[in-house]
Amino acid sequence: MKRKSSFLLDLLGIASAAIVAVLIGFIIILLVSDQPLQAMKSLLVDPISNAFNFGTVLNKATPLIFTGLALSVVFRAGVFSMGAEGQLYVGAFFGAWVATFIPGLPAAIHIPLILIFAMLGGALYGAIPGLLKAYYNANEIVSTLMLNFVATLSVSYLLNNVFKDPASGGYARMPYIQPSAKLGKFMEALPTHSGIFIAIAAAVIIYLFLYKTKGGYELRLVGENPLFAEYGGINTKKVIVLSVMISGALAGIGGVVEVIGLHGALKDQFSVGLGFDGIIIALLARNHPIGVIAAAFFYAYLQVGAQTMQMNSDVSRELAVIIQVLLVLLVSAQAIFAYLKQRVHRRKRGEANAL
Prior knowledge:
Blueprint (H helix, E strand, L loop, with lengths): L1 H31 L3 H9 L6 H26 L7 H18 L5 H30 L3 H21 L34 H18 L1 H11 L1 H6 L4 H28 L10 H11 L4 H24 L5 H37 L1
């Protein structure tokens, strides 16, 4: 009962933060725009005003679900990884190689094989900072940020040289993927590829893992109280490495789904910061896998709304960035207050036990 009440309070707090951020955005629109009503309509209504815009929202939400899940898992384990961007690139490269250079397979075999290789690439790359954190106490923020540069620049080099399509001209990309590797649209009226279903399935699987399995319980316990977990016989080093590998696998799938669902080829600099956006999604969702779906949809909704607002009014899309920053600040402030409240509660409980 207490857990349910806490969850509802969290949900109310996040919803309040979103409403306040949007209201501040409206105030800014009133101050800077000569067409405030048109700008507000474009931001809030246009993303769902037609099938194309709504399909674009779903396409943008798909990779955000994966990166949000990736970071939710490591945050649950108490590891503040920022490596989803690099893991996304490595996973996308591994998966795109299979999608491009292994012909003659039926789609029912080819697509799962692509996803497996993307998972392996992301997981193996994620194991590096995981091992450094677990066994050498290396700061995971520093190591994952540095490894992001290694991954993105290495993939960029390969796309500009070794695997560059000769027919691409001055544009750095692999050859186009095989037809059997392409994720098709699940509905003719929508421009949305079927990767959204893979993303939702991943969220459900991660939820079941975290809340219905022994491994998930150990991971959450290590994140909440690593000393108690170790005292209880849990191998905390193993859990830390596993959490970052799961995170890397999810980010890797997110990268390759973007390639085989949207772009049709692995392109240089295709991500546009999806791994870093995943941090915002995880914060908004309070690291809850099902909440990640709603947070990713809301974030994608704002992005598409910002694009339509810029096209249909005199307000630039940067306003959406302001709203996103406000969201992060407000949600982070809630997290800080919750942390301080928890510390006070623990201190009072310790004083009561001492008496």
